[in-house]
Amino acid sequence: MRILILGGTTFIGPHQIKCALDRGHEVSIFTRGQTEPPFFHDYFERVEQLTGDRDNDLSALEGREWDAVIDNSASIPRWVSMTTELLRDHVDRYLFVSSISAYADFATVGIDETYPVGQLSAPDVESMQEYGPMKARCEATNTEVFGENAINVRPGLIIGPGDNTDRWTYWPVRVARGGEVLAPNSPTDPVQNIDARDLSEWIVRLVETPGSGGTYNATSEVQQFGTMLEGIRAGLGSDATFTWVSTEFMAEHGVRPWGHMTNWVPPEGETIGMSQVSVAAAIEAGLTFRPIGETARDTVEWWNSLPEERRAQQGPGLPAEKEAEVLAAWAARG
Fold it and tell me: Where are the CATH 3.90.25.10 domain residues in the chain?
């Protein structure tokens, strides 16, 4: 197959490229030419690299034909309108990488692909404050243009080697350090995430397969947070222990869901369904999951290969001093 990837140089893109080339496909990528891929440089030497800008320069795509498109790089509906219109008679299938943030809310457990999506406040909105509704509108545009050959994939939190957000990486890096680890609320709280390689390999298989059109939630089956952390510890051979601190106590001491306790939100109220979406459709369409311990080992190996300056800039997660302070307060409570 001839596959065009819009984007391709960060996080899931390199994994898609490796998988597609390993499966014998020809790959073109369309980027601004400004980002150096984090790994698989030998694979990028085998890729046709087209340069332009989603915002105002698609000339490199004009007059070309591919069998399938994987659109990684769009959140703005106008961008998807431009590429789908340009490519509608020149590709067979168009896969848009969306997000579970496309849903209107997470007030229900077991949200599937039929649940209402967010709506834009105005048709021409291009503000990341409306990220979820913009993703939903991008999906709708894809479906309007490509019909049954449109594929919309809604990942949850993407994890693993190459994560440029540091969101989940906090956990394996912290567990690898060992000692007492502050963990959120209860080991039975739900959690979902998806290894970038599992997601990328499945996306390539989807575009290979005629009749795979439709919309899919793409994250793991629901796990317990304690099971995830134990899997990380076992995968790393760490001596870490976990102290589960209540939601209320964390809030009182300034420990934030998702920002400090990454990949976790309170399973209650408006966020009760955020880590409990249905992935039945994706599993039926072939999505598979590797063990979390494997993801943890590979993530730490990748993390340790980064320059020291980059590792010193780890973003999300609980700073060590703050963690020690809150653990001490938790131990001293009456």
Answer: 170-193+221-272+291-328
